[in-house]
Design a protein that fits this description.
Elements (H helix, E strand, L loop, with lengths): L1 H33 L3 H15 L4 H8 L3 H8 L17 H11 L3 H5 L4 H33 L1
Helix pairs in contact: 3-4, 3-5
Length: 149
């Protein structure tokens, strides 16, 4: 009887393992289908922050020292020519960093895909963190002032 149970348990364990692997593959496949190419993410975020700061391509070019044509190509990745190997060209990290500095954002904010709801939530979190940090700074300043007296 225990021999039958051992065989039965091994079969069940193998089926569970195979089902787990199947679902993991499906989830990875679905996740890959929903993932935006980095050039599209950069284009969307660049357009968002330019609009938010009312900057034109020419204005951003002047602030960042990145050419207006390059900014235009970053905003319209479908216009960029593929390389001989068939790969889509990517933005230079040094240029992305210059654009981020000019837009007064962190580099990751240009490279992370955001939904509109995530943008709103991030703004609220950032404002709350800033208010908390400012309050802590004021408390530290008050404490330092009372110790000096």
């Amino acid at each position: 009887m225990s021999e039958v149970l051992n065989v039965h348990n091994r079969i069940i364990a193998k089926l569970c393992y195979l089902n787990k692997q199947h679902f993991a593959r499906v989830i990875r496949h679905i996740g890959a289908m929903n993932k935006k190419p980095i050039n599209i993410v950069l284009a969307e975020n660049l357009a968002h922050f330019m609009s938010q700061r009312k900057l034109t391509q020419k204005g951003l070019s002047a602030l960042s020292d990145v050419g207006q044509t390059t900014i235009s190509l970053y905003l319209n990745p479908e216009r960029r020519q593929t390389s001989k190997s068939g790969k889509m060209p990517s933005a230079k990290l040094s240029e992305v960093e210059s654009l981020a500095l000019a837009l007064e954002v962190d580099v990751w904010e240009l490279l992370r895909p955001f939904t509109e709801q995530e943008r709103i939530a991030y703004k609220h979190l950032e404002a709350a963190y800033k208010a908390m940090s400012d309050g802590k700074q004021e408390a530290d300043d008050t404490k330092s002032g009372s110790e000096a007296a």
